[in-house]
Amino acid sequence: MVLSNAVISWRRFLKRRNCSPNTIKNYLNAIKSFIVWIDVPLENVTHTTVSHYIDYLMRKRLEPKTINCHLNSIRQLYHYLIEEGHLAIANPIRKNHKLRMARPLPRHLKDDQVETFFKVIKGHRDRAMFMLMIRCGLRVEEVAHVSLDALDFKHRKILIEDGKGSKDRIVYMSNDAMQALSDYLKARSSTSAKRVFLVEKGPLTGQPISIRGIQKRMEYYARKAKLHISCHHLRHTMATQLLNADADLCTIQDLLGHSNIKTTQRYCRVSNLKVQRDYFNAIEVIMQRTVCSKGNGQNPEASG
Predict the structure, then answer these.
(1) What dotted CATH number matches 111-272?
(2) Residue 81 needs a FRET pair 20 to 30 A away by CA distance; which of 56, 232, 250, 289 works?
(3) Reduced to 3 DSSP states, what percent helix, strand and coil does the chain have, rounded to the nearest 5?
(4) Is the pTM of this model over 0.85?
(5) Residues annotated as part of the active site
(6) CB burial class (10 A; 0-12, 13-18, 19+) of residue 275?
(7) In this predicted model, what pLDDT tens digit does every residue of 270-281 receive, in sequence order?
(8) Hey, what CATH topology would domain 3-97 get?
């Protein structure tokens, strides 16, 4: 394989692996930045070169998460060149190149904040969009891409096609989410568009609303409600509420479309009501045992 054609061949490889267009775009942008910066051929890049490149990205004040994404793109390209291109080169990306990142707990809304947020929403479309996030756990891109054919009101479910990681999944609609969606569809303009949510004003009226368009609506309502929230906070809120209602962790994983259960487990750390209930239930049992042991003249510490 000629290295000058490496990126083109890699792009085709990513497409064959069914990577999303957005993923491919991010990979290529990161590689372009790297190739422009290095002053040696790709095959001569060393781990020291990569370390200097990390310093360069840090001087640009890029976030650790963004830098790690750049490094992952470079690692993936070299992995392709070695495994698929059969080139006798070493992958210059090492484990210690990865920057440590803070792992803030997922933020969720309290019940009164949820009420405040939905009070400022007037339109049927916007209410339905955000209901699908907080009741069905949809990501903003999944709301933007949901189609009419995916809706099943009879069984109260929605087919999420080609979600994150190109995975399909089924989510279910609560009564209020289904009502909000039904109200919007009744008021929705008659059009041949297959997507559910459409632009309602301006030259693009009747066209599918974009991801950024939904995010702008969230920013507008967040300002009106005086809340510091994003679309993803609604998804976090759903997960936390389900945990507090004692829903099984694996069930929540399936509903959210998490590939790794560890991602879902992070919500356990913010599900304070469940932790609180578990603590007091357990401590009550311990205290009863202690009282019984004392009543029987036994030393509770000796029995341990």
Answers:
(1) 1.10.443.10
(2) 56
(3) 60, 5, 35
(4) no
(5) 139, 164, 232, 235, 258, 267
(6) middle
(7) 665 677 777 788
(8) DNA polymerase; domain 1 (1.10.150)
Question: Which pLDDT score is estimated for 288?
Answer: 83
4: CB partners within 8 A, 6+ apart: none
At 298, the pLDDT band (50, 70, 90 cuts) reads: low
Structure tokens given for 72: 């992952």
Q: Residues of 105-115 as b/e, b for ≥16 C-beta within 10 angstroms?
A: ebebbeeebbe
For residues 285 and 262, give the distance between their C-alpha atoms in angstroms, rounded to a whole number.
Answer: 29
Query: What is the C-alpha separation between 137 and 254, in angstroms, rounded?
Result: 10
**Helix H or strand E encompassing 151:** strand 151-152
> Rounded CA gap, 121 and 224, in Å?
9
The residues near 249 (Cβ < 8 Å, ≥ 6 apart) are 243, 261, 264, 265, 268
- Give residue 1's pLDDT band: very low, low, confident or very high (50, 70, 90): very low
Q: List CB contacts of 207: < 8 A, sequence separation 6 or more.
A: 193, 198, 199
Domain boundaries, the chain: 3-97, 111-272
Name which of 38, 39, 42 is nearest 57 in CA terms: 38
